[in-house]
Amino acid sequence: LATGPRQNNGIFYEIRTYDIKPSKMKEFIEVVNKYFHLRTSHSELVGFWSAELGAMNKVVHVWKYDNFAHRTAVRHALANDKDWQGKFISPALPLIEKQHNEVAYLVPWCQLGKPPKEGGVYEWVTFQMKPGGPALWGESFRAAVNAHINTGYTKLIGVFHTEYGLLNTVHVIWWNESPDHRAAGRHSAHEDARVVAAVRDSVRFLDSQQNMLLLPLQCSPLK
Hints:
Elements: H1 5-8, E1 12-20, H2 25-35, H3 37-40, E2 44-53, E3 58-65, H4 68-79, H5 82-92, E4 96-106, E5 121-129, H6 134-151, E6 155-164, E7 169-176, H7 179-190, H8 193-202, E8 206-216
Antiparallel strand pairs: 1-3, 1-4, 2-3, 2-8, 4-6, 5-7, 5-8, 6-7
Helix pairs in contact: 2-5, 6-8
């Protein structure tokens, strides 16, 4: 699972997480909505969300790059983009409390998906797996993800495995029609023997997990 498309294809995703000062969240979103087109003119934005549950005053955005040289070129262009620096960076930086980024690959058995319609919610689930990588836990993890897909209550958007950042971390993004729809589906999944068996097998390799319910921002391609 760690070979093939991931290594033959240089495409990777940068996951950027910002903690916004509690009193400045509204102001930050306003700046994003007004000027973020200056950023997306340089490279492809996959999605941009704010946390609704599981975290507070936090935003997550995901960027797609062809390779590391592509990212370097984009970062250089941004540093020299006076509109971007003046209209977004200058007013936005004082609103941000903390920044964190990771580089991750889309796992070979997953293609980046899209929701069937706009207006739903996204669940971002982070799994910290035991050291060893997909060679150790990849097959069991894939089976657990597929078991949830087969229940039909949720839509898989993507599965990302970190390359830079905290290693052996897997981020899974799901889409649901609403928080209540997600809750009802989870209750059904917990009573599904196929899901229970797959999760029991996968959890042997799990150290910890956490999740957030995310709402897409106006600029997000994934809505």
